[in-house]
Amino acid sequence: MFPMAMILLAFIAALSGNALLILLIQVDSSLHSPMYFFLRQLAFMDICQTLIIVPKMLADFLIPGNPISPAGCGAQIFLVLTMGVSECLLLAVMAYDRYIAICNPLQYPILMSRNICFLLSAGVWMAASVNALFHTVFTLALPYCGSKEIDHFFCEVPALLKLSCSDTSRYETLLYVTGIVVLLIPSSLILATYTCILSRVLRMKSTKGQQKALATCSSHLTVVVMFYGAVIFMYMRPSSYHSPEQDKIVSLFYTIVPPVLNPLIYSLRNRDVLHALRKWIGKCRDFQQD
Questions:
Q1: What family classification does the UniProt entry report for this protein (predicted)?
Q2: What are phi and psi for residue 143, nearest 5 degrees?
Protein backbone atom coordinates (compact mmCIF):
# COMPACT_ATOMS: atom_id res chain seq x y z
CA MET A 1 0.00 0.00 0.00
CA PHE A 2 2.93 2.37 0.66
CA PRO A 3 4.11 2.45 -3.01
CA MET A 4 0.54 3.08 -4.14
CA ALA A 5 0.14 5.93 -1.65
CA MET A 6 3.40 7.49 -2.83
CA ILE A 7 2.38 7.23 -6.50
CA LEU A 8 -1.04 8.71 -5.72
CA LEU A 9 0.62 11.59 -3.87
CA ALA A 10 3.00 12.13 -6.81
CA PHE A 11 0.01 12.04 -9.20
CA ILE A 12 -1.82 14.77 -7.26
CA ALA A 13 1.33 16.87 -6.87
CA ALA A 14 2.20 16.64 -10.58
CA LEU A 15 -1.27 17.58 -11.77
CA SER A 16 -1.80 20.42 -9.30
CA GLY A 17 1.73 21.84 -9.64
CA ASN A 18 1.78 21.88 -13.43
CA ALA A 19 -1.81 23.13 -13.68
CA LEU A 20 -0.94 26.01 -11.32
CA LEU A 21 2.13 26.84 -13.41
CA ILE A 22 0.05 26.95 -16.60
CA LEU A 23 -2.55 29.14 -14.85
CA LEU A 24 0.06 31.64 -13.60
CA ILE A 25 1.67 31.94 -17.03
CA GLN A 26 -1.75 32.44 -18.59
CA VAL A 27 -3.08 35.11 -16.20
CA ASP A 28 0.09 37.11 -15.48
CA SER A 29 1.12 39.39 -18.34
CA SER A 30 4.72 39.62 -17.05
CA LEU A 31 5.11 35.92 -17.92
CA HIS A 32 4.00 36.34 -21.54
CA SER A 33 7.47 35.80 -23.00
CA PRO A 34 9.01 33.01 -25.14
CA MET A 35 10.66 31.36 -22.12
CA TYR A 36 7.33 30.98 -20.34
CA PHE A 37 5.56 29.99 -23.54
CA PHE A 38 7.87 26.97 -23.73
CA LEU A 39 7.61 26.39 -19.98
CA ARG A 40 3.82 26.20 -20.35
CA GLN A 41 4.32 23.61 -23.10
CA LEU A 42 6.56 21.62 -20.75
CA ALA A 43 3.96 21.74 -17.98
CA PHE A 44 1.29 20.54 -20.42
CA MET A 45 3.51 17.63 -21.51
CA ASP A 46 4.08 16.68 -17.87
CA ILE A 47 0.33 16.66 -17.18
CA CYS A 48 -0.29 14.46 -20.23
CA GLN A 49 2.55 12.08 -19.30
CA THR A 50 1.15 11.74 -15.80
CA LEU A 51 -2.40 11.04 -17.03
CA ILE A 52 -1.14 8.47 -19.55
CA ILE A 53 0.85 6.40 -17.06
CA VAL A 54 -0.26 6.84 -13.45
CA PRO A 55 -3.99 5.89 -13.56
CA LYS A 56 -3.20 2.52 -15.19
CA MET A 57 -0.33 2.03 -12.74
CA LEU A 58 -2.65 2.62 -9.76
CA ALA A 59 -5.24 0.26 -11.25
CA ASP A 60 -2.55 -2.44 -11.52
CA PHE A 61 -1.67 -1.97 -7.85
CA LEU A 62 -5.34 -2.40 -6.89
CA ILE A 63 -5.99 -5.30 -9.29
CA PRO A 64 -2.73 -7.22 -9.96
CA GLY A 65 -2.63 -8.78 -13.42
CA ASN A 66 -5.09 -6.22 -14.77
CA PRO A 67 -4.99 -6.83 -18.56
CA ILE A 68 -4.49 -4.25 -21.28
CA SER A 69 -5.66 -4.73 -24.86
CA PRO A 70 -3.22 -4.59 -27.79
CA ALA A 71 -4.90 -1.35 -28.92
CA GLY A 72 -4.59 0.10 -25.42
CA CYS A 73 -0.94 -0.94 -25.22
CA GLY A 74 -0.24 0.58 -28.63
CA ALA A 75 -1.96 3.82 -27.63
CA GLN A 76 0.09 3.99 -24.45
CA ILE A 77 3.37 3.38 -26.31
CA PHE A 78 2.51 6.08 -28.85
CA LEU A 79 1.48 8.66 -26.26
CA VAL A 80 4.40 7.96 -23.90
CA LEU A 81 6.90 8.23 -26.77
CA THR A 82 5.23 11.38 -28.11
CA MET A 83 5.39 13.13 -24.74
CA GLY A 84 8.89 11.84 -23.94
CA VAL A 85 10.48 12.83 -27.25
CA SER A 86 8.57 16.14 -27.23
CA GLU A 87 10.10 16.93 -23.85
CA CYS A 88 13.59 15.99 -25.10
CA LEU A 89 13.30 18.33 -28.07
CA LEU A 90 11.56 21.08 -26.10
CA LEU A 91 14.38 21.18 -23.54
CA ALA A 92 16.79 21.78 -26.43
CA VAL A 93 14.56 24.59 -27.73
CA MET A 94 14.44 26.11 -24.24
CA ALA A 95 18.25 26.03 -24.08
CA TYR A 96 18.37 27.84 -27.45
CA ASP A 97 15.93 30.43 -26.10
CA ARG A 98 18.15 31.10 -23.07
CA TYR A 99 21.23 31.28 -25.28
CA ILE A 100 19.66 33.98 -27.49
CA ALA A 101 18.30 35.88 -24.47
CA ILE A 102 21.67 36.02 -22.69
CA CYS A 103 24.24 35.96 -25.49
CA ASN A 104 22.37 37.94 -28.16
CA PRO A 105 19.74 40.04 -26.32
CA LEU A 106 19.43 42.73 -29.00
CA GLN A 107 18.32 40.16 -31.58
CA TYR A 108 16.07 38.30 -29.12
CA PRO A 109 12.73 39.91 -30.18
CA ILE A 110 13.48 39.01 -33.81
CA LEU A 111 14.99 35.52 -33.36
CA MET A 112 12.33 34.49 -30.82
CA SER A 113 9.26 36.22 -32.22
CA ARG A 114 5.78 34.86 -31.62
CA ASN A 115 5.66 33.16 -35.03
CA ILE A 116 9.06 31.50 -34.57
CA CYS A 117 8.02 30.22 -31.13
CA PHE A 118 4.89 28.67 -32.61
CA LEU A 119 6.90 27.10 -35.44
CA LEU A 120 9.45 25.66 -33.01
CA SER A 121 6.66 24.28 -30.84
CA ALA A 122 4.84 22.77 -33.84
CA GLY A 123 8.10 21.23 -35.06
CA VAL A 124 8.68 19.61 -31.67
CA TRP A 125 5.20 18.05 -31.60
CA MET A 126 5.36 16.96 -35.25
CA ALA A 127 8.79 15.30 -34.98
CA ALA A 128 7.83 13.54 -31.74
CA SER A 129 4.53 12.25 -33.16
CA VAL A 130 6.15 10.87 -36.33
CA ASN A 131 8.89 9.16 -34.30
CA ALA A 132 6.33 7.70 -31.86
CA LEU A 133 4.08 6.43 -34.66
CA PHE A 134 6.98 4.65 -36.38
CA HIS A 135 8.16 2.88 -33.22
CA THR A 136 4.63 2.00 -32.12
CA VAL A 137 3.80 0.34 -35.45
CA PHE A 138 7.13 -1.51 -35.57
CA THR A 139 6.88 -2.74 -31.97
CA LEU A 140 3.30 -4.01 -32.32
CA ALA A 141 4.20 -5.76 -35.60
CA LEU A 142 6.73 -8.00 -33.82
CA PRO A 143 5.61 -11.59 -33.10
CA TYR A 144 5.02 -12.37 -29.42
CA CYS A 145 5.12 -15.96 -28.18
CA GLY A 146 4.58 -17.62 -24.82
CA SER A 147 3.85 -15.36 -21.87
CA LYS A 148 2.46 -11.95 -22.77
CA GLU A 149 2.78 -10.58 -19.25
CA ILE A 150 4.58 -7.22 -19.34
CA ASP A 151 6.85 -7.00 -16.30
CA HIS A 152 6.76 -3.21 -16.21
CA PHE A 153 4.61 -0.32 -14.93
CA PHE A 154 3.31 0.48 -18.42
CA CYS A 155 3.66 -0.53 -22.08
CA GLU A 156 7.13 0.57 -23.15
CA VAL A 157 9.29 -0.53 -26.08
CA PRO A 158 12.21 -2.10 -24.08
CA ALA A 159 9.75 -4.13 -21.97
CA LEU A 160 7.93 -5.45 -25.06
CA LEU A 161 11.13 -6.35 -26.90
CA LYS A 162 11.91 -8.88 -24.15
CA LEU A 163 8.61 -10.66 -24.92
CA SER A 164 9.19 -10.96 -28.65
CA CYS A 165 10.17 -14.39 -29.98
CA SER A 166 11.91 -12.95 -33.07
CA ASP A 167 15.39 -11.54 -33.55
CA THR A 168 15.11 -7.88 -32.50
CA SER A 169 18.79 -6.98 -32.97
CA ARG A 170 18.16 -4.93 -36.13
CA TYR A 171 15.34 -3.02 -34.51
CA GLU A 172 17.49 -2.42 -31.43
CA THR A 173 20.13 -0.91 -33.73
CA LEU A 174 17.46 1.33 -35.23
CA LEU A 175 16.31 2.26 -31.72
CA TYR A 176 19.92 3.12 -30.86
CA VAL A 177 20.21 5.37 -33.93
CA THR A 178 16.94 7.07 -32.99
CA GLY A 179 18.35 7.61 -29.51
CA ILE A 180 21.38 9.35 -30.99
CA VAL A 181 19.11 11.70 -32.97
CA VAL A 182 16.58 12.57 -30.26
CA LEU A 183 18.75 12.15 -27.14
CA LEU A 184 22.49 12.45 -27.66
CA ILE A 185 22.46 15.22 -30.28
CA PRO A 186 19.99 17.49 -28.38
CA SER A 187 21.74 16.86 -25.03
CA SER A 188 25.14 17.67 -26.60
CA LEU A 189 23.71 20.89 -28.07
CA ILE A 190 22.25 21.80 -24.68
CA LEU A 191 25.61 21.29 -22.94
CA ALA A 192 27.40 23.33 -25.63
CA THR A 193 24.77 26.06 -25.33
CA TYR A 194 25.13 26.29 -21.57
CA THR A 195 28.90 26.37 -21.84
CA CYS A 196 28.54 29.48 -24.02
CA ILE A 197 25.95 30.93 -21.63
CA LEU A 198 28.18 30.33 -18.58
CA SER A 199 31.10 31.99 -20.33
CA ARG A 200 28.93 35.02 -21.14
CA VAL A 201 27.39 35.23 -17.66
CA LEU A 202 30.79 35.19 -15.94
CA ARG A 203 31.78 38.22 -18.03
CA MET A 204 28.73 40.21 -16.93
CA LYS A 205 29.45 43.31 -14.85
CA SER A 206 26.06 43.27 -13.11
CA THR A 207 25.99 40.92 -10.11
CA LYS A 208 22.18 40.98 -10.13
CA GLY A 209 22.14 40.03 -13.81
CA GLN A 210 24.56 37.19 -13.13
CA GLN A 211 22.42 35.82 -10.31
CA LYS A 212 19.21 35.98 -12.36
CA ALA A 213 20.81 34.29 -15.38
CA LEU A 214 22.45 31.58 -13.28
CA ALA A 215 19.21 30.89 -11.36
CA THR A 216 17.21 30.48 -14.57
CA CYS A 217 19.83 28.36 -16.32
CA SER A 218 20.62 26.16 -13.32
CA SER A 219 16.91 25.32 -13.01
CA HIS A 220 16.78 24.29 -16.65
CA LEU A 221 20.05 22.34 -16.42
CA THR A 222 18.80 20.41 -13.37
CA VAL A 223 15.76 19.23 -15.35
CA VAL A 224 17.92 18.38 -18.37
CA VAL A 225 20.42 16.24 -16.42
CA MET A 226 17.71 14.33 -14.54
CA PHE A 227 15.48 13.70 -17.56
CA TYR A 228 18.07 13.02 -20.24
CA GLY A 229 20.23 10.90 -17.94
CA ALA A 230 17.40 8.49 -17.14
CA VAL A 231 16.11 8.25 -20.73
CA ILE A 232 19.59 7.67 -22.20
CA PHE A 233 20.27 4.98 -19.60
CA MET A 234 16.98 3.28 -20.52
CA TYR A 235 17.01 3.48 -24.32
CA MET A 236 20.71 3.46 -25.24
CA ARG A 237 21.52 0.07 -23.70
CA PRO A 238 21.19 -3.34 -25.42
CA SER A 239 18.22 -5.41 -24.25
CA SER A 240 20.59 -7.97 -22.70
CA TYR A 241 21.59 -5.34 -20.12
CA HIS A 242 18.00 -4.66 -19.08
CA SER A 243 16.43 -6.16 -15.97
CA PRO A 244 12.74 -5.64 -15.06
CA GLU A 245 13.40 -4.29 -11.57
CA GLN A 246 16.09 -1.88 -12.74
CA ASP A 247 13.96 -0.69 -15.66
CA LYS A 248 11.03 0.01 -13.34
CA ILE A 249 13.17 2.23 -11.12
CA VAL A 250 14.85 4.04 -14.02
CA SER A 251 11.54 4.68 -15.79
CA LEU A 252 10.25 6.56 -12.74
CA PHE A 253 12.99 9.17 -13.25
CA TYR A 254 11.63 10.24 -16.63
CA THR A 255 7.91 9.56 -16.22
CA ILE A 256 6.87 10.26 -12.61
CA VAL A 257 9.65 12.30 -10.99
CA PRO A 258 10.03 15.13 -13.58
CA PRO A 259 6.32 16.12 -13.60
CA VAL A 260 6.47 16.40 -9.81
CA LEU A 261 9.76 18.31 -9.61
CA ASN A 262 9.54 20.57 -12.68
CA PRO A 263 6.96 23.00 -11.20
CA LEU A 264 9.01 23.21 -7.98
CA ILE A 265 12.32 23.70 -9.80
CA TYR A 266 10.97 26.35 -12.14
CA SER A 267 9.00 28.21 -9.47
CA LEU A 268 11.11 28.12 -6.31
CA ARG A 269 14.22 29.18 -8.27
CA ASN A 270 12.41 31.74 -10.42
CA ARG A 271 11.62 35.15 -8.95
CA ASP A 272 9.19 36.06 -11.74
CA VAL A 273 7.06 32.97 -11.12
CA LEU A 274 7.14 33.47 -7.35
CA HIS A 275 6.12 37.10 -7.80
CA ALA A 276 3.25 36.05 -10.08
CA LEU A 277 2.17 33.46 -7.51
CA ARG A 278 2.13 36.06 -4.71
CA LYS A 279 0.11 38.45 -6.88
CA TRP A 280 -2.40 35.74 -7.74
CA ILE A 281 -2.78 34.70 -4.08
CA GLY A 282 -3.25 38.36 -3.14
CA LYS A 283 -5.97 38.81 -5.77
CA CYS A 284 -7.74 35.66 -4.51
CA ARG A 285 -7.69 37.02 -0.94
CA ASP A 286 -9.01 40.40 -2.04
CA PHE A 287 -11.79 38.69 -3.99
CA GLN A 288 -12.80 36.62 -0.93
CA GLN A 289 -12.83 39.72 1.29
CA ASP A 290 -15.06 41.58 -1.19
A1: Belongs to the G-protein coupled receptor 1 family.
A2: -80, 140
